[in-house]
């Protein structure tokens, strides 16, 4: 009797703010200067498997805003989600956790950044959309290059 494969399942169970901070290193002095912000965004994702079908994906954003070469504002946050995922091949699972889930979490993180900005009495900052598929593909390519370099290095050592 042929074994039937379970149909793939995907569901978002929960979205939550895991950690957040806002700093204005210059304090009130930042408000006495003209506002010509230079915005830098750093992104990172981390995944952990909670049980057989539950995964936590954490999207970390670090927004650094400089004004006149000095850090005016620093926002760090971890936007997390718990996803139910089953029935996917390893490659599909990797893409889902590395690109699809972060793309679901990003709008929540973007709204939190915007809210922090206005609560700190700065102009709103709506971060541009991020192409997580392209970032994931780039990450896979870098990993493959590192693995190839490591294999070449190991091969050279054995000669």
From TrEMBL:
Keyword annotations of the record: Chaperone, Cytoplasm, Protein transport, Translocation, Transport
Subcellular location field: Cytoplasm
Family annotation (InterPro entries): SecB, SecB-like_sf
Domain of life: Bacteria
Pfam families tied to this protein: SecB
PANTHER family according to UniProt: PROTEIN-EXPORT PROTEIN SECB (PTHR36918:SF1), PTHR36918
Subunit structure, as described in the record: Homotetramer, a dimer of dimers. One homotetramer interacts with 1 SecA dimer.
Entry similarity comment: Belongs to the SecB family.
NCBIfam families recorded: PRK05751.1-4, secB
Protein name: Protein-export protein SecB
Organism from which the protein derives: Nitrincola lacisaponensis
């Amino acid at each position: 009797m042929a074994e039937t494969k379970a149909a793939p399942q995907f569901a978002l169970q929960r979205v939550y703010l895991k950690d957040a901070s806002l700093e204005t290193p210059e304090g009130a002095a930042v408000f006495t200067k003209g506002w010509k912000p230079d915005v830098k965004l750093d992104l990172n994702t981390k995944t952990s498997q909670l049980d057989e079908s539950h995964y936590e994906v954490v999207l970390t954003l670090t927004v650094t805003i400089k004004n006149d070469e000095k850090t005016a504002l620093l926002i760090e946050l971890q936007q997390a989600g718990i996803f139910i995922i089953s029935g996917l091949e390893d490659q599909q699972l990797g893409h889902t956790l590395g690109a699809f889930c972060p793309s679901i979490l990003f709008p929540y993180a973007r709204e939190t950044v915007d809210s922090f900005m206005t609560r700190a009495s700065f102009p709103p900052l709506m971060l541009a959309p991020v192409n997580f598929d392209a970032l994931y593909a780039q990450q896979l390519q870098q990993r493959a290059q590192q693995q190839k370099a490591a294999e070449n290095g190991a091969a050279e050592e054995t000669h």
